[in-house]
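Name: Leucine rich repeat containing 74A
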Amino acid sequence: MCIPLGPACGFPLLYCSSREHKCNSGAELYIEACKLVGVVPVSYFIRNMEEPVMNLNHHGLGPKGTKAIAIALVSNTTITHLELEDNWILGEGTTYLVQMLRENCYIQEMNISNNHLNTDGAEAICRMFFNNISNLSLVSVCRFFPQANYRMIELDLSHNEFADKAGEQLGQMLANNESLEILNLSWNQLRMKGAVALSAGLRANGCLKILNLAWNGFGNEGALALGEALKVNSVLTELDISSNHINNEGTIKLCRGLEVNGSLRILKISQNPITVEGAIALVTSVRKNSKSRMEEINVSNVLVNEGFIKLLDIVCEIRPELDVIYGGVGGSISKKLEQLPDPMKLIQVRGPSLNAEQCLCNFSGVVLFTASLIDFSGVYWGELNYMLGCIK
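Structure predicted for Leucine rich repeat containing 74A:
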């Protein structure tokens, strides 16, 4: 019986399990595949093909090297955990992996993060979700339960340069997927249309619990779309939108969803251009929402004021589980500093007769180098160097 490696799978016909033709080992199959695609075989892969864990992180495989690996893995029954992080797989290599997974039902964990997948890679991943092709479990990329129909629960696709078009495709994936619970899309240049599309997918999703969108470019428009999604979504418990160019205006728009949402527990929105006005809006939204389950709001870069502290105390009396992480209380001084004399006024009062030693050492440790206002003509260089050495 032949293992299908022909055009239907996108692979050449290299392996057949019949008695007429059979490669003696997986290593021979891999070497033949490397010859076909024109790459140098990875010796580590050959030595460890019978081990359950295969770690090929940072090996510089590229799309062609990934294709050779995929060909060899079609018939492999021992590897259950495959690590391929940081290999410049690109969208082309992702397609080869998806094709391989249609035949291989033994791989349960795989890591393909940080591989510059871009839009083509997003398309391939979406096809993998839609087609229900295996019982794959991706750790740092996704995780499945080994059932007849796979159930992916975790997907980490950070640092893959998806941009807006891929964001639209991933939004469709979110809208249709019924198993994914944890999704990391941080550092993927998701802005404008991509941000809105992802938010629309979140609106229709009924199973995602943790969503990381940090270090993208959602902006106020994306915050508005997320707020609309939170009005409907009743499953999401943690949302990270740190560093997304969201200001007070966008925060207020997001709060419209927080005022009615009954599932979100953790909101991370730090490293955005938000002031105390935005922080007050966030706490007020929790106060207005009788069914809010919020436990943590992170605005760690925001300096608040006494009015915010009073509001937070009132809200925490009603909701003692709420923890708001902020940067500090602005405008307060913990210790009164000793008033130092104004050196420029002192120079102006005493005039040009002020000597160098007084200028350099007389202001409680404050060193002045205002040579244009001071007469150093009577000071030898040796004396000046000595004085400078004393105050270092």
